[in-house]
Design brief:
Length: 27
Amino acid sequence: MSGSGSLQSSVLHFQPEEKDQQKSASF
């Protein structure tokens, strides 16, 4: 599953950038 790797990369970049919105992003 190549898509899985790409998704993980996106999430890793999203978590730190949206740290302030962690409460909003409950996924």
